[in-house]
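Run log, item B.
One chain of 173 residues. Sequence copied directly from the ordering sheet:
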Amino acid sequence: MGLGANLELQLGSDSRVWERTRSADAHEHVQGSGDSSVALKWLLPGSNDDMQWALLARQGVLTGASDIRAGRAQQDLGISVATGDLAVYVNATRDEDGTGWTASPSWTFLSTDTVAAYVEAALGTGAQRSHALGTGITWRVAPAMQLDLSVLRGFADAEDDWTGGFGVSFLLP
């Protein structure tokens, strides 16, 4: 939700989670509601049409089902820089597994007044150890409303994972 020209409030929830884990020893399937989060995103001074940079601070809220809920609420602090069709997001995270860093470059290969599509990569260290590739699309259905759809494929050690997402964003008058 836009709170002003340079400030955005983000309320998030993993409203429905399906998780399947397979290993040589066992197969486990868990589903239910996931945790939530509240965040503030601030478009920093000096941003213009050629380059934008923003700061994002997010606090997790333990609202998930007992089988899915994290042991500790996740905290994130990140910064993004975008110029033209290229962007990079760097994030520090603290959660039940410890701390870690993630860097995620992206390229927007399609951009119109209503639709945009991008590809991204993610490299994480520490508790956020990951290697991932993904893509997504945004659709501005009205001047103050946008829908987002994304998919991310992880390649970390012997684990392969898929993450999908759907989001709705709107600007309050």
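Observations after the first pass:
- The chain has a mean pLDDT of 87.
- Residues 102 and 154 are 13 Å apart (CA to CA).
Flagged for discussion on Thursday.
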